[in-house]
Amino acid sequence: MTSHIHGKDVRADDLRFLAALADTGRLMTAAKLLRVDHTTVSRRLRALENALGARLFDRGLEGWELTETGRAVVEHARTVQKAVDRAIRAVAGTEADALTGTVRVTAADGFGTRFVVPAIARVQAKHPDLNVELITGARELALRESTFDLGITLGQPPVTRLVTEKLCDYDSGFFASETYLTEHGDPVSFEELERHPLIFFVDAMQRVREVDLGRYLPNAVVRFSSTNIFAQLEATRRGVGIALLSKFMAGTAPDLRPIAAAVPLPRVPVTLAARREALTRREVRVVREALLREVHNRQDELIWHADPPAAMTADV
Q1: DSSP β-bridge partners for residue 59
Q2: How big is the chain by its Cα radius of gyration, in Å?
């Protein structure tokens, strides 16, 4: 829709509501950020759309998504919000470079817990007024969505219009508890391994081709499966069977060790994706940089270097 727009009809404060909903994707979260009722957010955004004569948001499957016009306007809205934040900090006497706002990150359960959380903790130690939301889960990340700022995906880099970069790689292997291997034997071949009960993801939820169990052990029998990597890890520790685990997850359980069978597995790439407009925000860039530093400083937890265990030689 189009109409004649008069500057006096556009309230600068309404632009803050636009920025909040664009950053969070949800009315309730935006309302919490602005410390108002969600109906107030809805009412102020309708007023802004009427004043501009254009629709700024559409309702998506995962929340509210900016329209093309909304994307053109939102950076101006963020300028208004940043001006308000600077004014508040000036009165409060806080540091000029302090970060505020909300950054939403999506990642798989294990990687999110082991690497994203420590990176976020370091950022928030320096910027205590910054809000960070970490969304984890086994479902495939829908990179077309605009309800996140930074998205971490495992496996081959996705085809997307988002800005992507390689975050890191990680190695995987077959692990079991010392107790299990003592009681049931340590398999030394593919054939022996297929006779053991295995632990893995629920098949429908497995999206990482590099660790697709069926590619390596087509006759394997999965006796315990879960969408949650921590449940798989605990089942392995309890002696339920042998699990295909990432090095960084297996390393958290000292009572696990790689099996004797040499099963070469390709290294898994990890991709960091971001909405182009999100990267214009300093708080998003700071979190991105913290993630890059985190994986760089902890390479030994992700991959085997000069002397990997014989059973875990990666085919890269």
Answers
A1: 64
A2: 24
> Is 39 in contact with 69 (CB distance < 8 Å)?
no
How far apart (Å, rounded) are the C-alpha atoms in residues 192 and 167? 36
- Two tokens, residue 264: 């070469």
| Least confident interval from 13-17, 124-128, 131-135, 299-303 | 13-17
**Within 13 A of 162's CA, how many CA atoms are on the CB side?**
26
Give the distance, in angstroms, between the CA of residue 255 and the centroid of all CA atoms in the same chain.
28
Q: Are strands 268-274 and 150-154 parallel, antiparallel or unpaired?
A: antiparallel
The yes-or-no verdict on residue 314 having pLDDT over 50 is no
What domains does the chain contain, in order, with CATH numbers? Answer: 7-92 (1.10.10.10), 102-169+269-301 (3.40.190.10), 172-266 (3.40.190.10)
By DSSP bridging, strand 102-107 and strand 131-136 are: parallel
Return d(Cα 6, Cα 214) in angstroms, integer.
Answer: 63
Contact of 27 with 41, CB cutoff 8 Å: yes
d(Cα 39, Cα 29) in Å, to the nearest integer? 12
CB neighbours of residue 161 within 10 Å? 10
Q: Using the predicted structure, report yes or no on whether residue 311 has a pLDDT greater than 70.
A: no
pTM for this model (two decimals): 0.71
Question: Which tens digit of pLDDT belongs to each residue from 8-33?
Answer: 577 888 888 888 888 777 888 888 87
> Mind listing the pLDDT tens digit for each residue in 274-309?
887 788 889 999 999 999 999 999 999 999 875 445
List of residues 6+ apart from 110 with CB closer than 8 A: 229, 230, 246, 248, 249
Non-local (6+) Cβ contacts of 94 within 8 A are 129
pLDDT over 90, % of the chain? 41
Q: Which two tokens stand for residue 307?
A: 């002397």
| One-letter identity of residue 277 | E
Query: Does residue 209 surpass a pLDDT of 80?
Result: no
Cα 297 to chain center, whole Å? Answer: 19
In this prediction, residue 278 carries a pLDDT of 83
